[in-house]
Amino acid sequence: MQQRLPRATKVKNKQPADRQITAEQLLREAKEIQLEDDFRKPKTIINDPEELAEYRLKKRKEFEDMIRRVGRFNLAIWVKVRVEGVLMHPIHNTP
Hints:
It contains three helices and no strands.
């Protein structure tokens, strides 16, 4: 079975730009933005059980990917996974 590739779009203006930006510059600028002190990840607001289930699934996938990428023998990652698991699934005290 042959896979079809998308058509190449035609370039209208083939003249070089006045100022060229390299991939290295783009990555450097993105990293600078992340390292700024006032940069914070937006807070996640969960409104219903379905959103909570999606959030838990997303976090679980992130941890599994991290374990695969960094290594399953890295104790710090397993501690993170455990702490997150305890925070996500609190023990309900029954009277």
